[in-house]
Amino acid sequence: MNVLLDTHVALWALTDSPRLSERARELITAPRSTVWVSTVSVWEIAIKHALGRGDMPIGAEDALRFFRRAGYRVLPIEPEHAAAVEHLPAHHQDPFDRLLVSQALIEPMRLLTHDATVARYSDTVVTV
């Protein structure tokens, strides 16, 4: 199963944060799971870290290095991903989350998120 991690879920997994649920841990470590992190997340980390946001404790270059070291695959942003955002209902206004949802729907992948609003888009989005 292809599993796409929302930005915070990816960071929590890397740091073994107590905020990462047991269900998320199981899905991420399952032998049948291929874990993906989107270029969207690297971009989000870069922007928010540069702004000094406390919820982004590391920069994008370090995060990317850690993601690769953890064995996560990196999903590029394709034009089809960006175009699909246009057809999403207006459940959520965060452009990063909307693009992650589009990627999960187009590929298809299971998107693991902690945001219940993001989960409203599809049953392929899993709240963890």
Short account of what is shown:
With 128 residues, this protein is an alpha/beta fold. It contains seven helices and five strands; from the N terminus they run βααβααβααβαβ.
Describe the structure in your own words:
The chain is an alpha/beta fold and 128 residues long. 48% of the residues lie in helices and 15% in strands. It has helices at residues 7-15, 22-29, 39-50, 60-69, 79-84, 95-106, 116-119, and strands spanning 2-5, 34-38, 73-75, 110-113, 125-127. It has a five-stranded parallel β-sheet with strand order 3-2-1-4-5, sandwiched between helices. Strand 4, helix 7 (116-119) and strand 5 (125-127) form a beta-alpha-beta unit. Helix 3 (39-50) packs antiparallel against helix 4 (60-69). The longest helix has 12 residues, at 39-50. The two termini are 16 Å apart.
What share of the residues lie within helices?
A: 40-55%
Task: Give the helices and strands as they follow along the chain.
Answer: EHHEHHEHHEHE
**Main β-sheet, in a few words?**
5 strands, parallel
The end-to-end distance, rounded to whole angstroms, is 16 Å
Secondary-structure-based class equals: alpha/beta
β-strand amount: 5-15%
Tally the helices: what do you get? 7
Question: Could you tell me the number of beta strands?
Answer: 5
> What is the residue-mean pLDDT, rounded to a whole number?
94
The gross shape turns out to be globular
| Rg over C-alpha atoms, rounded to the nearest angstrom | 14 Å
- The main sheet orders its strands as 3-2-1-4-5
Give the uncertain stretches in residue-range form. none
